[in-house]
């Protein structure tokens, strides 16, 4: 009897764990699928103007094309380590952009290849402070969390966190940032723009089914143990 109770208790505990694992993976699948659908829908919509960013909900802003007029501040520029393009190591380039309304935004100007060695800085596309119009994808993710521990502040400064770098430079930026697509001044266009996220639902749904399969395996194992236990008891009689 004790063996039966112990085996059944263990089986129930394992089944409970498998159910939780299946639900967790299914929830991750739903979240990722919904996010992919949001991106697919928003990137196909007409571009927004800056004043719309203050009135629309986040779901109608994320990954939406936005057109802004203003000027780049190349003296406020940082590089993000560990960016790759076609297997080549390089950096992401973030440059401060001040719109005509006076608001400050970080703009991801895409990827640049690393220098020939650690002492050679990458060749970053030159900018001027002239008035331009940019078209870019709006990003609402926490930029600070994405670049933490991977930021090189330019020129001649190093910081592990964008927030700290902002503080040192007395810069206050908007919570939204942009992935640059194009600029009215064509020489400012990114040679390698930052790509949209991969629109794949990932393996989460398959993992959810795997957890369900494990439940049936646990039940089968429990049945076999109980059957062998009863068979053993019958042989002793």
Q: Would you kindly provide a written description of the structure presented here, covering whatever features stand out?
A:
The chain has about 240 residues and is an alpha+beta fold. It contains four helices and seven strands. The protein folds into two domains: about 1-40 and about 200-235; about 65-190, no CATH class. A hairpin with a 4-residue loop joins strand 3 and strand 4 (about 105-115).
What are the salient characteristics of this protein?
4 helices, alpha+beta, elongated, 237 residues
Q: How do you describe this structure in short?
A:
This protein has 237 residues and is α+β, with helices and mostly antiparallel strands. It contains four helices and seven strands. Helices cover 37% and strands 27% of the residues.
